[in-house]
Amino acid sequence: MTDDVMETQDPATTPDATPSIDLLVSQMERVIRGKRPQIEMVVTCLLAGGHILMEDNPGTGKTVLARTLAQCISGGTQDGHVLFKRIQFTPDLLPMDLIGTHIFDDRNKEFVFKKGPLFCNVLLADEINRASPKVQSALLEAMAEHQVTVGDTTMMLERLFFTIATQNPIEMEGTYPLPAAQLDRFFMKINFGYVDEETELNIYREYLDIARNLVELTQVLSMQDILALQAQAGEVFVHEEIVKAVSNIVRGTRAHPDISLGASTRSGIAFIKCLRAWALIKGRTFVIEDDVRDITRAVLEHRLIYRNKEGRQKALEGIIIKETERLAKLKLYGR
């Protein structure tokens, strides 16, 4: 193990984030059963300072997961400001329904701006692909720059602004594919999936308790706690060879014959941020080779456009295998 790695593990300089993260995950598992990997991915995106997109069929628990996370970190209101807001995306939604609009104040005889639901800390964009691309694009500036522009005025969003978007599979009726530019703003995309048979049976037996748990969930981490964890994630050590692996994977997607649109430089930056946050969730202050394999698909898959179905199944996997095998031979940490 290198001296740099050893230095990042010094408890005197790096507070242990594990208890706080475990507390958040365990609190969420009171409601979301059998989905710890998905919970960890969502928390990874939160600590990386990004946004996450969850896709699956209706009724798999995507919306409940978002509400659960928000309830665990919001605590309702703070200084009179509601920290969690939910938008149900529908075909008739307008951009002003997200950003806000000017209304006439009859008392003062002037127009005042009424903020929309984007002005929050945790935003649930539910069934985002049921709204038109024009409405979806209203999120672009907010997700990329934490600000919105109305006319000639630019307004900053909250320091912590985390979007959890859910979408139904694009094959379903009444859905629109998200623009590539917006997909690129999501640090991760995960498929929620159904639980296993035993977990599903337990959910049926205990659904009343689960619903009660959702109502009774209490705040376990404050906004300042989350910001502190984000700062710690930014300090996680990334070996130069792992940075090179990220670059090789990103550039490999651009050169692969089965991929017509590869990953961007922005996706590589998001990849490294997520690697740091993932390592922190796993109780480490440094990124290891296995982390690359664990999260590459979640970070990059949704950003790629494939030439054929066969390429979708094999192209990225081949790139991942090649690079993780290279890292394994290097034995970065003496393993």
UniProtKB/TrEMBL annotation:
Coiled coil: none annotated. SUPFAM superfamilies: P-loop containing nucleoside triphosphate hydrolases (SSF52540). Residues 51-188 form the ATPase AAA-3 domain. InterPro entries: ATPase_AAA-3 (IPR011703), CbbQ/NirQ/NorQ/GpvN (IPR050764), ChlI/MoxR_AAA_lid (IPR041628), P-loop_NTPase (IPR027417). Residues 252-311 form the ChlI/MoxR AAA lid domain. PANTHER family: METHANOL DEHYDROGENASE REGULATOR, MOXR FAMILY PROTEIN. This is MoxR family ATPase. It comes from Nemorincola caseinilytica. The lineage of its organism: Bacteria, Pseudomonadati, Bacteroidota, Chitinophagia, Chitinophagales.
